[in-house]
Amino acid sequence: MATGAAAVVVAAGAGLGLWAGGGDGGGGEPAGSARRTSAGEPARRAPGTPEPSPTHPLSSAPRTIPAVGAHTPARGPGWRPERGHRVVVGDPDLADEGRLIAGELGMTYGGQNGEVRAGDVRLALGDDEGADPEAYTMTVRGGRVTITAADDAGVFYGTRTLKQAVRAGGSAPEGVVRDDPAKPQRGFMLDIARKHFDAGWIEDRVRELGDLKFNQLGLHFSDDQGFRIESGTHPEVVSKDHLTKAQVRRIVELAESRHITVVPEIDSPGHLGAVIAAHPDLQLRDAQGVAASGAVDISDPDAAGIVDDLLNEYADLFPGAPWHLGGDEYRALTASDPEASYPQLAAAAREAYGADGTVADLATDWLNDRAETVRAQRKTPRAWNDGFYRDASVAADERIQVAYWTGKEIGARQPAEYLSAGRQVINYNDEFLYYVLGEPQTFVYPTGQRIYEQWNPRVLRGTEAVPARYDGQILGGTFAVWCDLAGAQTQQQVAEGIRMPLRATVQKLWDPGEPPLDWPEFKALADRLG
């Protein structure tokens, strides 16, 4: 998405032909256009003064991505930004939202102001306790716009709707929008471990995500190929190409201004090749001394020590609650007989859990211990579904959320097994939501059209949806970029490749039902919005 273009279209000249391409007012006339005389000349009116409503057809809902939930139409000219119009706020906590939308629409920021003038956009917090903090109401009436919500997040999403409405049709249509998301977690995950991405590129994605009403950005920054964020506790594990903590703070600050939480991931006990490169003594080896790629020896307390050092170090850098612990593809548990292949792990399991202790028990205990480490930092842990083991006598902590991505692992379980046990699940379905560079194995680049037409948050594995009774346990979904073949695409190619899949994904997370537009219409709208 050309985020800069969307931000400056109105600023380049508010009221200068922005609505000339048509709008949502009906009758082939933009909602914010001046009434035409019989001679075809526009009737003159004072700036910001609405025309008599009987001259206007009923409005249509604003065209946005994601689509708004409900719109009550009305007769009137709608609203468009013009010179002299202001953004005012009813609460000082909304100053950031006010300044942002004022700059984007080329308007004046009037600060906290009880006086409302013609043409104003007013942002306000309501006193509806218990309301969804992401819900909002946008009212366009009498030549003004009012956006209200119980929380500043909802107000922010209302400003995104206003921005898109102006971008799509030149004006915000008369009437009332009432809108809220179906799912509380709407994420994009980026693998910066296998491929280094510039801080500026990531910041551009944050702006794009914010305009689309995503609210999570995952950063998978440690894997076999690299460790990509500066470290003070273990600088020896950090790759040459990496983000400094100062750069990460700027990303996090920008994300917070868009009501996006950054979700870090240090995957363990597998996918730790970059850490092992600096600490080869921690690598897991089988009975013949053959190293297990990327896996640490979880019977060695030093392995837990270094991972906990890193988890604790980054707790303040990422102030949000969610924390991804990984837990997937531990090499020891891909062996046909883990206890025979890795006798040191089997011995540690028997010592800890008795004669029947297994490697799966030991790995589950590792996950639980890491969950306790981040929970002590007031984080909410999640882990990949193949980090939860069916036959372990040690149960994974029930508070660890399941990031469900695959049904291909050994002993794979259907999503309903996790849901019926009462677990909360986040949808990362690799059939639809995995953009894997180079298309290795059986992966193909996902298309926005397929997501838009065939996926919804209950489709957790393959193409089949789980029963509707589990919908409340599915917290949302995340579209993921994995860089298995890092050189297969440039950063720009990645941005272009994920553009429509991101838009389709957020549409279905905001409203899993039948979209109001067919795919060609949706794509045309995305092209118009930029």
What does this structure look like?
By secondary structure, the chain is of the alpha/beta class. It has two domains: 70-179, Chitobiase, domain 2 (2-Layer Sandwich), CATH 3.30.379.10; 185-529, Glycosidases (TIM Barrel, Alpha-Beta Barrel), CATH 3.20.20.80. It contains 14 helices and 18 strands. Strands 8-9-10-13-14-15-16-18 form an eight-stranded parallel beta barrel, surrounded by four helices. A seven-stranded mixed sheet has the order 1-7-5-6-4-2-3, covered by helices on one side. A hairpin with a 2-residue loop joins strand 5 and strand 6. The radius of gyration is 26 Å and the shape is elongated. Mean pLDDT is 90; it is low at 1-52.
Oligomeric nature of the chains: single chain
CATH class of the largest domain: Alpha Beta
Q: Shape, please?
A: elongated
In total, the number of strands is 18
Q: Strand sequence of the main sheet, in spatial order? A: 8-9-10-13-14-15-16-18
Estimated structural class: alpha/beta
How many domain regions?
Answer: 2
Identify the CATH homologous superfamily of the largest domain.
Glycosidases
Give the termini separation.
6 Å
Tell me the CATH topology of the largest domain: TIM Barrel
Low-confidence stretches: 1-52
Share of residues in strands: 15-25%
User: What fraction, in percent, of the residue positions are helical?
Assistant: 25-40%
Q: Any guess at the CATH architecture of the largest domain?
A: Alpha-Beta Barrel
DSSP summary: helix tally: 14
The radius of gyration computed from the alpha-carbon positions, rounded to a whole number of angstroms, is 26 Å
Overall pLDDT confidence: 90
Q: What is the makeup of the main sheet?
A: 8 strands, parallel, barrel
